[in-house]
Design the sequence.
């Protein structure tokens, strides 16, 4: 995921990839002026490697799942990493402010299944028109988030996350309950896999270590084959089963490093590594740093 986000900055953003803040995941505030490095890239149908909240003022078009989504005036837009979309605008006065963050940042230490949240449901673009008063209210929250991002407040990660959820809840409270997704719809294989992963990693501890971390382990629990699971996930997410599991292991490792006093050896045990050096090498390969450096920075 880290490398995918770096590629996004290289392709889209005028400024460089932000300095590592050692949050539990990636977070940044961008503006439309930052994203005009290559406008043709915006018009290509593709996924972005993060959750995005876009506060917009102007006329533009999104495309997703063969559907054109026009926007005009004051609008808020939500997308998630599995949303395949493109964007275009001819509005010379277009204004856009964006909160972008990885799933690991948005979840923090909580065990949230974000795919069940109405604004992120079904891998679709969620848009909602706003009044001028609503737009100005949310713009102020965005500004406060951006200012906090650059502050030296020790607990700014938690504060920023809370403010992002203030925006999400503000919008979701206005959604009629009969527009909420049915709790009884049958999940697809990729949805069942992602829910299983979250449930498997729920409350990992020395007393409750991870029981398995391989594609074969999860395919067996889902009564499917590794090949079928890989093909499904690759088609939907662009990632293999192994890619998703490795990202989730790193996410959990970071939580344990920052929020417990477990030793690296104990964390390796929690995450089903039989040898501590194997865990350290795995962590370093995926993050370009070591567990101890991450913990102490």
Sequence:
């Amino acid at each position: 995921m880290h490398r995918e986000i770096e590629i996004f900055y290289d392709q889209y953003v005028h400024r460089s990839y932000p300095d590592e803040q050692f949050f539990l995941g990636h977070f940044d505030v961008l503006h439309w002026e930052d994203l005009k490095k290559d406008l043709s890239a915006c018009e290509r149908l593709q996924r972005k490697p993060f959750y995005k909240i876009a506060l917009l003022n102007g006329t533009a078009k999104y495309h997703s799942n063969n559907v054109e989504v026009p926007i005009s005036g004051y609008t808020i837009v939500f997308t998630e990493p599995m949303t395949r979309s493109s964007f275009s605008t001819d509005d010379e006065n277009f204004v856009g402010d964006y909160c972008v963050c990885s799933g690991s940042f948005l979840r923090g230490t909580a065990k949230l299944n974000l795919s069940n949240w109405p604004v992120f449901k079904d891998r679709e673009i969620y848009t909602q028109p706003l009044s001028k008063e609503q737009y100005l209210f949310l713009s102020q929250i965005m500004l406060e988030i951006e200012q906090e991002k650059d502050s030296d407040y020790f607990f700014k990660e938690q504060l920023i996350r809370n403010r992002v959820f203030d925006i999400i809840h503000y919008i979701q409270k206005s959604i009629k309950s009969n527009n909420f997704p049915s709790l009884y719809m049958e999940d697809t294989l990729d949805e069942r896999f992602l829910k299983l992963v979250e449930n498997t990693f729920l409350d990992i501890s020395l007393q409750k270590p991870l029981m398995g971390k391989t594609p074969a382990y999860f395919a067996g629990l889902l009564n499917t084959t590794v090949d079928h699971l890989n093909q499904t996930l690759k088609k939907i997410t662009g990632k293999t089963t192994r890619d998703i599991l490795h990202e989730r292991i790193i996410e959990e490792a970071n939580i344990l490093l920052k929020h417990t006093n477990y030793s690296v050896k104990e964390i390796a045990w929690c995450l089903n590594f039989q040898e501590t050096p194997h865990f350290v090498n795995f962590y370093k390969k995926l993050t370009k740093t070591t567990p101890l450096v991450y913990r102490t920075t």
